[in-house]
Amino acid sequence: MVMVMIVVVVIVRHAGLRFALVYSMSFAYFTALADRIDRLNTAIGRAAAWCALAIVLLGFAVVLLRYVLGVGSIWLQESILYAHAALFLLAAAWTLKEGGHVRVDVFYAHAAPRTKAWIDLFGALFLLLPFALAIAWFSLPYVERSWAILERSRETSGLPLVFLLKTLIPAFALLLALQGVAQIIRAVGRLVPPPLAGEGAEDRRSEAGGG
Amino acid sequence: MPLPELLAVLMVVAVCGLLFAGYPVALTLGGVSLAFAALGHITGAMDIGLIYALPQRIFGVMTNTVLLAIPLFIFMGVMLERSRIAEDLLETMGRLFGALPGGLGISVVLVGVLLAAAKGVVGATVVTIALITLPTMLRHGYDKRLAAGTVAATATLAQILPPATVLVLLGDQLNNSFQAAQLAKGIFAPESVSVSDLFAGALVPGLTLVALYLLFLAAVALLRPSAVPPIPPDPAAPHGFALVAQVAGAMVAPVLLIVVVLGSILIGLATPTEAAAVGAVGAILLAALRIKGAARWPAYSGVVGFLALIALRATIPQTLLMALMLAVAGGLVFAVHQVWRAGYLAPTVTKTTQMTSMIFAILIGATLFSLVFRGLGGDDMVHRALANLPGGAAGAILAVMLAMFLLGFVMDAFEIIFVVIPIVAPPLLAMPGVDPIWLGIMMAVNLQTSYMHPPLGPTLFFLRGVAPPEITTRHIYVGIIPFVLIQLFALVVLWFVPGLATWLPRMLYGG
């Protein structure tokens, strides 16, 4: 898909209106795809964010049980760990979309919008996608082994869902990779706005204003 | 230099260089490490099978109960910020001390310390403190350089005052390294160093720094009173007893919360994770109390019920215990509903989630980095280099401190902790006479200093971003200098008097 976009970009740069039309049409298609990815990751991230409240309340419950009644519930403690893992793994892609992942912005903060788009394009292509896909690839056998035995907690009274917990690792990687695809689409859209009016018109205007 | 080690060095260079491009740090770390793993595989310098250990490492992070304290402390801090408890605190304290020359500056430091204790994330702290305090100080004719310096230094202090997030992560990483160092020496029942140890160790140096900041402000008030003018009393504002009551009202609850959270960790009653959970719930209850027009009983029921439970748990009958538990649970449920209705809760969980996710993404990226660095034999190389430095352990530590100081200009504390400590700490801790708590606190103060050191200290950039236009970069750079000198002085003292860091943990936990 990425290759297709690059080819499209190259063709558009050197050809006439017919190709411009093709580019604008495929651009609309890709923008819709990016929107869809954004919506998916936002929904997942927003849902995962409420794990934060769950962690607080369950953590407090553990304290009360331990200090007042003197009982420890492994089941409860493990569910906090599950909520925590879901929180930071499932929300990572959404955090990327919202710009929450810290950058060294000595230069980036003052860079022109086009430069930023190039950085995001190259970063997503050569850093994010390989990293995320490698995590997914290398974690598959690990997760498969866990599913094969429907792995449960090592504690007898723990949660029997370790295979689901481990599945969060490839899920994290794939959601992140998807968000990387959306980032690529948006960066290309900012670098080569579609020549015909449509969804990209707004982008062009904001770029003209910013640069 | 053999090929694997050459690759390891190149990888470090590539990471540092690419970070400057400004792509998110977590992904840069991960992507570059992966590329070098592939390079190592192609050239035969590294066994790519090592990467199959990555899922297991990530799973280790997911099931680490110490790191669970991170989202809890962040939740507590964000909730206190969203409910504007900190702002009120500054306003009332400013009124109390404002009549003295330098009084406003002193309140900024004191409130900053309280805020810091509830936060521990530098970027966020400097923004909050600057937005609340800078306009007030400038309006009352404070010297611009002094105002900017005070804000930047105070906010940076957030990094090392317990329960700072940085200390939790530092404790976790140092413990791994400490165990590895002892195993390497053939000690198979290794001692450990805990987050509580680091909290206790950071307390005395941290408070010493606070005292030095205050002394400096007092000295300015004596020598150049025009730089720190007193605030003319506001005739409409309460004074006398009413003022004291107001200050007490604004201060008691948040101070109590922080004392309870820190105290229970320090005296060993609760683990940091447990105390953080109590702190987060306490922040919800305090926030609920501040909603105008909302019922007060849920918060009171929660607080009083909890304190009664803790105080009386051994002496009262089971039925009464159950009733109290119900009172706490009911109060808490209603309070959560109240803060949700008031619009505090959704932004708090959002912010907590994104910050937590950011930190753990860096941890995952750094995990791959360490795996590949080790796979290429980089850790042996660092080990040898440190062992061959002149001056033995002291020389090695000095070199590491200098490197961390320079890295502090480009990287966040989180990244440095995740990337540098697993590499350098095991050989350092294996050297004779190096105390892990002391080393951790030295690293923390060192990072904090580099954070506010011109021209590249990140705090200064954060401040630049939110300061009013009449404050120039020059004001900030000049204003921070006295505080940087104080920091360097504290580092030197800490170097020669390790007891500052190790005395309290030793007294509290023995050993």
Explain this structure:
The complex is a heterodimer of chains A (211) and B (511). Chain A is mainly α and 211 residues long. Chain A has helices spanning 2-14, 17-49, 51-69, 74-90, 92-97, 105-108, 113-148, 162-191, 201-210. Chain A is built from nine helices and no strands. In chain A, α3 (51-69) packs antiparallel against α4 (74-90). The longest helix of chain A is centred in the middle third of the chain and has 36 residues, at 113-148. Chain A is elongated, with a radius of gyration of 22 Å. Residues 199-211 of chain A have low confidence and may be disordered. Chain B is mainly alpha-helical and 511 residues long. In chain B, α5 crosses α11 (241-266), α10 crosses α22 (499-509) and α12 (272-289) packs antiparallel against α13. The longest helix of chain B is centred in the last third of the chain and has 31 residues, at 345-375. Chain B is globular and about 75 Å long. The two termini of chain B are 43 Å apart. At the A-B interface, α2, α3, α4, α5 and α6 of A face α2, α3, α4, α12 and α13 of B.
Label the overall shape of chain B. Answer: globular
Distance between the termini of chain A: 29 Å
DSSP summary, beta strand count of chain A: 0
Distance between the termini of chain B: 43 Å
Rounded average pLDDT of chain B? 87
Order of helices and strands of chain B: HHHHHHHHHHHHHHHHHHHHHH
Instruction: Give the helices and strands of chain A as they follow along the chain.
Output: HHHHHHHHH
Which oligomerization state do the chains in this entry correspond to? heterodimer
Largest sheet of chain A: none
Shape of chain A: elongated
Count of β-strands of chain B: 0
Structural class of chain A: mainly alpha
Low-confidence stretches of chain B: none
Q: Tell me the radius of gyration of chain B.
A: 24 Å
| Unreliably modeled segments of chain A | 199-211
Number of helices of chain B: 22
Largest sheet of chain B: none
Mean pLDDT of chain A: 86
What integer value in Å does the Rg of chain A equal? 22 Å
Fraction of helical residues of chain A: over 70%
Estimate the helix proportion of chain B, in percent: over 70%
